[in-house]
């Protein structure tokens, strides 16, 4: 039985507003701005909220500064975050001071210092560093179930109980692998295959080609939620934008699968919502 409580009402409204301000930033007189910095394998996103935590600006760029949640091009990452920050500052006519960042599940002991350093070196005061699924659930507002973040390099599965993340894991297989499959099948260079894949006009045609790799993701999900009483999974991450991915996963996992209208910006917005003026410990 599908869960009637999962409507993504808040999420869809927030993401919709964010998509609009990426194109047309809102110049308001806000006493403070909160920035969320999402350093991903495929994409780096900055989301900016005003004093009432409403989206006012955003910017993102595809980049290769992170691999599977680890920063591999440290200076490139700093330069990119600084550039995106500068672009938004110019549009808003203000200086962005406070930022929050997030760490992919399971890498905190390895890399949280690097993520923090990148955000600081880009000119921000970092006020919070949280894990990605906790950030995503700030926006999804799930009580129970699992959040599955299908990003560029990895699929992160996080189990939520009473609104809190109780189990996290991250495994290779994500949008990069989808693009590799397309690159092979269509004899296209990787970058072109990735662009072709992101165009929703091509999704129907691509779905059968990508079915095996989507089922691999289903296998990963089942492996991790098996020990928990999970019935509902909610998809986030750019790869979840693929039209129809939810149907294949629903069939394969035999779980209720939900996805918000645009799953790509859920985590960055959740990071921004977790930003404050005071440093959190
Ligand atoms: N409209 C779309 N259709 C299909 N795939 C898409 C679409 N938009 C983005 N993607 C894919 O989503 C991936 C990027 O998603 P996301 O920004 O969530 O990843 P990331 O955070 O950079 O990676 P990770 O979480 O693995 O570090 C890329 O592989 C990209 O090609
Ligand atoms: Mg990500």
Commentary on this structure:
The structure is a single chain. The strands form 3 sheets. Strands 3-2-1-6-7 form a 5-stranded mixed β-sheet, with helices on both faces. It is globular and about 50 Å long. The chain has 281 residues and is α/β, with parallel strands linked by helices. It has helices spanning 9-23, 74-92, 108-121, 132-140, 175-186, 190-198, 203-225, 245-253, 266-273, and strands at 34-39, 43-49, 55-62, 66-67, 70-71, 98-103, 125-131, 145-150, 154-161, 164-172, 232-236, 256-258. The chain has 2 domains: 9-136 and 265-273, ATPase, nucleotide binding domain (Nucleotidyltransferase, domain 5, 2-Layer Sandwich); 142-264, ATPase, nucleotide binding domain (Nucleotidyltransferase, domain 5), CATH 3.30.420.
Compact description:
The chain has 281 residues and is of the alpha/beta class.
> Which CATH-level-2 architecture of the largest domain?
2-Layer Sandwich
Q: For this entry, what is the oligomeric state of its chains?
A: single chain
Proportion of residues in β-strands: 15-25%
Largest sheet: 5 strands, mixed
Helical run tally: 9
Low-confidence stretches: none
Bound molecules: adenosine-5'-triphosphate, magnesium ion
Give me the side-by-side strand order of the main sheet. 3-2-1-6-7
The total strand number stands at 12
Query: Would you give the CATH topology of the largest domain?
Result: Nucleotidyltransferase, domain 5
> Percent of residues in helical segments?
40-55%
Tell me the structural class: alpha/beta
Total individual domains:
2
Q: Please identify which CATH superfamily of the largest domain we are dealing with.
A: ATPase, nucleotide binding domain
């Amino acid at each position: 039985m599908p869960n009637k409580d999962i409507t993504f009402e808040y999420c869809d409204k927030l993401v919709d507003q964010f998509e609009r301000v990426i194109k047309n930033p809102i110049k308001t007189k806000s006493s403070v701005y909160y920035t969320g910095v999402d350093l991903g394998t495929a994409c780096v996103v900055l989301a900016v909220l005003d004093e009432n935590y409403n989206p006012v600006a955003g910017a993102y760029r595809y980049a290769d500064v992170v691999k599977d949640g680890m920063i591999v091009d440290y200076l490139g990452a700093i330069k990119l975050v600084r550039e995106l920050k500068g672009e938004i500052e110019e549009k808003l006519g203000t200086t962005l001071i406070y930022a929050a960042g997030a760490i992919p599940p399971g890498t905190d002991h390895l890399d949280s210092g690097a993520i923090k350093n990148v955000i600081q070196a880009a000119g921000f005061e970092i006020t919070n560093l949280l894990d990605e699924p906790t950030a995503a659930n700030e926006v999804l507002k799930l009580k129970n179930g699992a959040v599955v973040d299908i990003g560029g390099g990895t699929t992160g599965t996080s189990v939520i109980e009473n609104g809190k993340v109780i189990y996290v894991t991250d495994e290779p297989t994500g949008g990069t692998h989808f693009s590799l499959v397309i690159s092979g099948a269509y004899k296209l260079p990787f970058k072109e295959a990735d662009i072709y894949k992101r165009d929703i006009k091509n999704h129907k045609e691509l779905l059968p080609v990508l079915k095996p790799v989507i089922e691999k993701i289903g296998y990963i999900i089942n492996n991790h939620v098996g020990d928990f009483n999970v019935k509902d999974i909610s998809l986030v991450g750019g790869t979840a934008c693929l039209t129809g991915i939810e149907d294949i996963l629903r069939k394969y996992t035999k779980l209720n699968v939900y996805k918000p209208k645009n799953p790509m910006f859920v985590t960055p917005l959740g990071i921004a919502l977790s930003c404050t003026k005071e440093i959190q410990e």
